[in-house]
Design brief:
The complex is a heterodimer of chains A (about 110) and B (about 110).
Chain A: E1 3-6, E2 11-14, E3 19-26, E4 32-38, E5 45-51, E6 56-59, E7 62-67, E8 72-77, E9 86-93, E10 100-102, E11 106-111
Parallel strand pairs in A: 2-11
Antiparallel strand pairs in A: 1-3, 3-8, 4-5, 4-9, 6-7, 7-8, 9-10, 9-11
Chain B: E1 4-7, E2 10-13, E3 19-25, E4 31-38, E5 42-51, E6 54-57, E7 65-66, E8 76-78, E9 87-94, E10 104-105, E11 109-113
Parallel strand pairs in B: 2-11
Antiparallel strand pairs in B: 1-3, 3-8, 4-5, 4-9, 5-6, 7-8, 9-10, 9-11
Classes of the chains: A mainly beta (about 110), B mainly beta (about 110).
């Protein structure tokens, strides 16, 4: 079955450093991947989408890469700030149905 | 303000007592979806709707019903709730019919079934 995996261990980094989060997928080739941010007790908020024919996408301090050979997407936050502390989710959707599959999320803690 | 609203935000109920969680969006989105979120299991899709009168099962549809009679509303119905349906529920909508569409999520409904 289609599976999307994120590192369940929390990632702790120092303010100013680059945070890198990983999303791996198996048993399928997604047409795109989405990344969301979720704060405790709140709904996820969309950040970025990357398609299979795109190697990299950027938005301000955020960068997403998509490696179809490694079956992996990397999500980078440069010059991280304590306000970036949250759980980050990756998700894949089918190209011909409305199904959306989320990873479990990785919690990022940025320390001042 | 563009938003997805859910009601109620918190609900404690007893096993077997039918309940409905409402979801409404004001963005004229065609696609709407329901998720549940549980510790260690992440967000799992319950049902989705590509348009009015068009609904389909997600990964965990058992014990739930939905309807889409109007574009803006997508209620989630639990005919006979059980304790294993205790969870945090999110409704979401998207302009695109689920195909790479950015999802807008509601604030969540925390349901406890005793």
């Amino acid at each position: 079955s289609q599976k999307i995996e994120q590192n369940s261990e929390a990632l702790n980094i120092q303010e100013g450093k680059t945070a890198t989060l990983t999303c791996n997928y198996t048993n399928y080739s997604p047409a795109y991947l989405q990344w969301y941010r979720q704060d405790p007790g709140r709904g996820p908020v969309f950040l970025l989408l990357i398609r299979e024919n795109e190697k990299e996408k950027r938005k301000e301090r955020l960068k997403v890469t998509f490696d179809t050979t490694l079956k992996q997407s990397l999500f980078h936050i440069t010059a991280s700030q304590p306000a970036d502390s949250a759980t980050y989710l990756c998700a894949h959707g089918s190209s011909n149905t409305g199904k959306l599959i989320f990873g479990q999320g990785t919690t990022l803690q940025v320390k001042p | 303000e563009a938003q997805v609203t859910q009601n109620p935000r918190y609900l404690i109920t007893v096993t077997g007592k039918k309940l409905t969680v409402t979801c409404s969006q004001n963005m004229n989105h065609e696609y709407m979806s329901w998720y549940r979120q549980d510790p260690g299991l992440g967000l799992r899709q319950i049902y989705y709707s590509m348009n009015v009168e068009v609904t389909d099962k997600g990964d965990v549809p058992e014990g739930y019903k939905v309807s889409r009679k109007e574009k803006r509303n997508f209620p989630l119905i639990l005919e006979s709730p059980s304790p294993n349906q205790t969870s945090l529920y999110f409704c979401a909508s998207s302009l695109s019919k689920g195909l790479a569409g950015e999802q807008y999520f509601g604030p969540g409904t925390r349901l406890t079934v005793t």
